[in-house]
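Q: Second attempt. The first request was missing the SMILES, so the protein and flavin mononucleotide are both included now.
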Amino acid sequence: MRQLKLAKAFTLMEPGPVVLVTTCDGKKNNIMTISWTMVLDFTPLFAITTGVWNHSYAALRKTRECVLAIPAVDMLDQVVGIGTCSGSDTDKFARFRLTPLQGAFVRAPLIQECLANIECRVVDVVKKHDILVLEGLAAYVNPARREKRTIHAVGDGTFIVDGRRIDRRKAMAAKLPAGV
Ligand SMILES: Cc1cc2nc3c(=O)[nH]c(=O)nc-3n(C[C@H](O)[C@H](O)[C@H](O)COP(=O)(O)O)c2cc1C
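A: Got both inputs this time. The predicted holo structure:
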């Protein structure tokens, strides 16, 4: 994984990919799949929607840390598998043959096989809507990866894969932060 400037980390999330969220409760690593995400600002701040119905939630609340790991389309079956079993009875790193990497700021592991990883701290919990607000602390990309297309969940069990990239950077220049 190569370090990515933190000011660019929001560009990993703005296209709305399905993400894997890793946690470490102090004893065990876990992973869940999340498609309800949002970029809140450039700093970067993100929101995810999840709650007590998931095993990961207790670790998220207790440690107030996680990693947002962004899978590519060649990981779709792992992404669906991770999102349909529970860390309460499954070691998902072992079952889905994923490699945990130590980050610099949080105990939750990065996932080596993913396209990118963002170490995050939970900075707010909006209980009424089961929203966790995350602050990105460091970001990494995997430059060696050949398959770079991300996955977008429709919500009915089907997925859309990234298509053509269209450049409107000149027209948007006034709205883009410096260096992005
Ligand atoms: C494609 C996909 C998207 C998902 N998105 C969310 C989500 O946005 N929020 C959520 O709470 N659960 C979501 N889930 C469900 C969790 O990933 C699932 O309940 C998982 O088993 C939780 O793992 P855990 O119990 O080990 O924490 C999604 C599952 C899949 C397959």
